[in-house]
Amino acid sequence: MASLSLPLSTVLIFIICTLTLTAHSVPFIVLHGIGDKCSSKAVATFTERLSNWSGSQGYCVEIGDGGWDSWTMPLLEQTAIACEKVKNMSELSEGYNIVGLSQGTMIGRGVVEWCDGAPPVKNFISLAGIHAGIASIPFCGSEWFCALVDLLIELEVYSNYVQEHLAPSGYVKIPTDISAYLKGCKFLPKLNNEINATRNSTYKERFASLQNLVLIMFEQDTVLVPKETSWFGYYPDGAFDPILPAQETLLYTEDWIGLKILDEAGKVKFINVSGGHLEISTSDMKTYIVPYLEDETSRQVVITETSPFNWLSSIWHFFLELIGFSKDQPLLRMVD
């Protein structure tokens, strides 16, 4: 029987590349926005492209049925489910990155701050995050469900019933009704460590332990009111004007969650991109997201790997670029 003989140098390179990829490639999870689900074409494509470009394995984490539960399940419950999922994913056991989309950023931050026994989160990439709250429920449309949403809001956004049946009510912060917000809102005051009597230093320690916090705001975002909430900017208590930058809010100056610690260490990236809510181009994805999902080792292995599958992948991507598929195209939209 003939034996296959390979040069020693080839064998060593293969072993080193394989071990390095296994040891240093950090996986990531995607947490989708409200009304969406992991199986939607936009979210699936978004996750796949980030994985292909970064050389890191990506997973979309689904909560319940995705769309319906993202509207009706309280955010504390959604976060608890996400927490158990990441703890049970062996692929994440050595640490992972989070990419959050709009409402998904709230669930992701809850996992970072509250999830006991979970693997460490290294980088947190937030697209259109609702970090300081919003002053109104995101525009829904004219369908029957949206009419029901409007009715629930009219009843009282901070009532127990609305808080338990309408997920976005968990991050509505009416600046002229702060006392009702602190008393009745079940999610955001806890997430942002806003209530002095129940302020938890562990939440701050965990959030401040991030290696990088990437905050992407969309310049033409009309869904988030104000859009500056994506950078932790918000209205002052008692008024709808002016919009305070993050550094002038009490959350920052008193450092309730460790944002100031991260910022002064140069770990917060305030990024502004053109586009409406969750409307991001492929070039912006490559520039502002991919670098935090990959490392030098991953890039070197992807470049030097010579398996038939990677050769086919390279040819395929070259073909797509040749016929024009590399042009910037929005991948995620909030559909009216």
Automatic annotation (TrEMBL):
The keyword tRNA processing does not apply. GO terms for molecular function: thiolester hydrolase activity. Pfam families: Palm_thioest. InterPro entries: AB_hydrolase_fold. Residues 1-25 form the signal peptide. Transmembrane segments: none annotated. Keywords: Hydrolase, Signal. This is Palmitoyl-protein thioesterase 1. It comes from Quercus lobata (Valley oak).
